[in-house]
Write a structure and sequence with these properties.
The protein has a single domain, classed as 3-Layer(aba) Sandwich (Rossmann fold), CATH 3.40.50. The radius of gyration is 17 Å and the shape is globular. The protein is an alpha/beta fold. Strands 3-2-1-4-5-6-7 form a 7-stranded parallel sheet, with helices on both faces. The model has no long low-confidence stretch (mean pLDDT about 95).
């Protein structure tokens, strides 16, 4: 038998934001490692596309809006009552919103914090329940290099992702007694629809300047998916409360 330390055979893993970008790539990557994937997203057609791209069988798709914080814990409890406990969550859902502070409104702040930080915290509350996780159990968040090195006009988004960094430090220790490890990846600019949206608000010269800040160039979704898989698998058995930069040298 071939030795594969990152094998996820026999494990069930929820991937949020699985309809595009890093989330979709992660769902596909995990299926290639043998996981049964529960793919979650808000767009039915795109969710079907993701499910069709997964390797193996018995994968599950679920439409759900993580912006409804009150519904997250009941939703995950009902999901696990139906399909069994999860061995992992790859929380890739979120919003990227660039806006200078003088243009920020309270509803914008609350929307970004709700979707990028609030949902992450409520998923942790649900996943720690005995009915919602098996053994082993690993929770992986998708933070951002913006949390560690931000730029003008990006402060609200950076703050929401910085909140995840702080949450991981606390949850990584707090959930040890529940048998759950908690870590995060912090990607820099990845070639996804989200980065395409960012590109539309910059001149070509300014966007190229951003690209040049990454010594290894822009990342691909699979680069981040591989790091998430590492943190879900037994390869990271002795890691919790950590932030893994996946940034092409952006923070170097």
């Amino acid at each position: 038998m071939t030795f594969n330390p990152m094998s996820l055979e026999g494990r069930t893993i929820l991937v949020t934001g699985a309809t595009s970008g890093i989330g979709k790539a992660t769902a596909i990557y995990l299926s290639k490692l043998g996981a049964r994937v529960v793919a979650s997203g808000r767009n039915s057609a795109r969710l079907d596309e993701t499910l069709a791209a997964l390797e193996g069988t018995d994968h599950i798709g679920r439409l759900f809006d993580l912006a409804d914080l009150d519904a997250i814990v009941p939703w995950l409890k009902a999901l696990c009552a139906e399909i069994g406990p999860l061995n992992g969550i790859a929380h890739c859902a979120g919003v990227q919103a660039t806006r200078p502070i003088q243009a920020v409104k309270p509803d914008f702040v609350m929307d970004v914090l709700t979707q990028n930080l609030g949902a992450a915290l409520m998923l942790a509350q649900a996943f720690r329940l005995k009915s919602c996780h098996g053994s082993p159990a690993s929770l992986v968040y998708c933070s951002s290099s913006a949390a560690l090195k931000t730029a003008p006009g990006n402060v609200v988004y950076a703050a929401s992702k910085g909140g995840i960094v702080s949450a991981v430090k606390g949850l990584g220790v707090e959930l040890v007694r529940d048998g759950v490890r908690v870590n995060a990846v912090a990607p820099a600019m990845v070639d996804t629809p989200m980065s395409d949206q960012f590109r539309t608000i910059l001149s070509e010269e300014n966007f190229q300047r951003v690209v040049d800040m990454h010594p290894l160039g822009l990342g691909r979704p699979d680069d981040v998916a591989a790091a998430i898989a590492f943190l879900l698998a037994d390869t990271s058995r002795w890691i919790t409360g950590s932030i893994l930069s996946v940034d092409g040298g952006f923070l170097a």
